[in-house]
Each structure stands twice: as C-alpha cells, then as structure tokens.
Amino acid sequence: MEPIMDYYADILRQRTVAAASEGNRDWWISWSTLSRLSKQLIQLWIIVVASLLISGILLHFSFLHVFIFVGTFGHAWFLLWLLHGYYYNSKEISWDITIKAFSCGFFIITILAVMWELGLGMAFNITMALLLKLFGVNAASDNGFNWVAGFAQSASTRDDYLGVFGQNHPFFYALIVAFESYVLAASIEELVKYLGYPMIMDHPDFWTRYELESAVGTSIRRLRKNRSYDDEESKNENECDDEKAEIKALKQLDTSQQDKSLSVRGAMISMSMVAIALGFTCCENLLYIFIYNEHSLRREFTTLVFRMLFPIHPLCAAFQSIGVVKRDIEKDSKFELGQILFPAVLLHGTFDWIVLYIGDFCDFPLVAFVLAFLFVLAALIFYYILSQDQRQRLQEREKQNSTTFL
C-alpha cells in the first residue's frame, strides 16, 4: 500500500502555491499530485476507451457511432472538469479524490446497481405474471398470443405481458410503472450511489489538521526508522542526502491548509458525491445508447442528446449531498439515511415515470419532454435555493464558532 504522504505532500505544496496566487484555479491535473491508484485508474481508462473504440471499428462502427461513443465519455468528463474547476473550490478539492470518485461510480456502483436491478426486476416480473395467472387475468395480444402463459416458456416475454395488459388497464399499468420507477430504479440506484460516498470518504482531503499532522509524523518516523535499520556505510552519500531532504520537506509542509471552513467541507462532500454520480451516469449512458437501442443510429443519437440535456443522476446526488452535509457537518443527528435519500428518490422516480409512462407507453414523447424539462428545471432551482440556505447556515455557524473561540 502506498504511504499517504508520498503523494499528498505534493498536493499540499500545490495548494500553497495556489493560495499565493489569488483567483487561480486548479483546472488541470498535475501528475505528481496523483496517488499510484489514481495513475493506474487513468491508465485503465485509456485502455478501456481504446479497447472499446478498436472493438467498435472491428464491428464496422460508422463515424457517427464513434462520435456518439466519444460524446458519451466527453460529456461526463467535461461536466467533471467544469464542476471541479469552476463551481466548487478546486483549491481545496484535489483531482486525486475526483478521479477516484468518478471511477468508483463507473465501475463499482454500476455493477452493484445492475445486479440489484436485474435480481429484483426479475422477481417482480415473475410475481406479476403469477398474480395475473392466479386471478385469471388474460393478457393476450392482437394475434391471440397469451403472454402470461407464454411467460413460463420464454423469458423474452417477461416485459411484454405487462404492456399488453396495460393497454386494457392503463391506470393499473401506471401504478406498475410507478413501482418500477420509484422502487426498482430510483430507490436502488440512489442507495448504491450513496454507498459510494463511504468508499471514498477516508481520503486525506477529508482529514482534519490533527489527522494530517499525525500522518506527517508517521512518515517522518518511517524514514528515520529506515535509516536506523540500514547500515549508513552501505548507502552512498546521495541516498542519505535524499532522505534528509525528504524529512526536511515534510517538516516544512503547511498543514494549516487542513483547517477548512465548514462551507468548504460541505462543498467537498457535494463534489465527491456528484463525481460518483457522473461516473455512474457515464456507464449507464453507454448501456442505454449501445445495448438497449439495438444499434439504431437515430435512437442512439437521440438517447445521447436526451441524457445530456437531463443529467438526473448528478442532480439527485447533489440533493443527497445536502442531507449528508446536514448530518455530518451541521451535526443534525435526527437526519438519517431515509431523509437523505427521499428527495433524490422522489426526483429520480418522478422523472423516470414521466419518461416511461407518458413518453413510451402513452406515446406522447413531446409532452414527456416538456414535462421532464420543466420538472428538472424546477428541481435545479430548488436545489440552488437549498444549497444557498445551507451555505449561509454553515457560514453563520463558522462565525459563531470563531466568536466563541475568541
């Protein structure tokens, strides 16, 4: 395992330089400030993207296919870069944690979400088929095929029988779509996105000054211990000088930078959770565009544009972060997991219901688009109001703590 200060010391030095230049933002990634894991993740990203592109070319992808593929990744990475460099305080949030959070969302959170959705979705469809058959409900298509009976013979019909049944019972089908939207999709995905936060919250960016100084002291003791165990005569003069210089550099680190304000710590939580959601969104978009659309160029492009216009996952993660900050920074012990997830599940589930029921089943895509646009716009405005109120509360609490200390 890589010692923390082997890379975090460079992050602190970079922040010291950035603090001296007012208004300077950390727009670009400095390789020396990345941990070994982050460097390996970047290399993995290069391999993954290159492999997928080569596979697509071998499968005779057209230029538009390649454009859609690059646009899917580019959209997520651009939002990540923009949020890190502009909206949040990039001097306080390292690229190291941003890369790890994005990768966590893409690889780990997506796998968890797909596994849970497939398992619970299959159980739901089987349960509905059995209930329809138990109560003698006949869901037959126009050509006379009985989907309920056929469900037991072919797994490919597991969604069709609900669609056929819904044509005659639209209200009942609206409830089924609501269950799928709010429970099978929104609840599972918002929960697994939340679980990504504990996976990365042990990053040094979240440490207090005391914790960081303890890590610095541990690194210094480790270097001195190595010197005492090794025979000084067996080392050349340059090696000894390097160790002495490294110890001196660690002692000169400005650890006061870890004395971050409450509002900055809140922004760090928000940025981390949004980065996780962006990673998840990127992978999910690839699945929707290239797997679920049956290689239709028109639908692939339409899906890309639609999902670019409605970044529902990052927005839901931002709502979650308000609850996490209220619990962890504002120290509201009554604010529990259910209260953190509820606004995100409500937003996510309603958006999915509009798209799936009004847009797909009722075949009113334009109406669904307008409703989704207005709904997401209202959610953005509501989030902005909540975040500004929370920032003001944190700043007032900071002033009270300063007054109490004085």
Q: What is the C-alpha radius of gyration, as a whole number of Å?
A: 26 Å
Question: How would you characterize the largest beta sheet?
Answer: none
* Uncertain ranges: 150-158
Measured by DSSP, the beta-strand proportion falls in: under 5%
Helical proportion?
over 70%
How does the helix and strand content classify structurally? mainly alpha
What does this structure look like?
This protein has 406 residues and is mainly α. The chain has helices at residues 5-20, 36-58, 63-87, 95-134, 147-151, 160-168, 170-200, 209-229, 237-251, 262-290, 297-309, 312-328, 337-361, 365-405. Helix content is 76%, strand content 0%. Helix 2 (36-58) crosses helix 4, helix 4 (95-134) packs across helix 10 and helix 12 runs antiparallel to helix 13 (337-361). It is globular, with a radius of gyration of 26 Å.
List the helices and strands and how they pair.
Blueprint: H1 5-20, H2 36-58, H3 63-87, H4 95-134, H5 147-151, H6 160-168, H7 170-200, H8 209-229, H9 237-251, H10 262-290, H11 297-309, H12 312-328, H13 337-361, H14 365-405
Concise overview:
The chain is mainly alpha-helical. Helices cover 76% and strands 0% of the residues. The two termini are 42 Å apart.
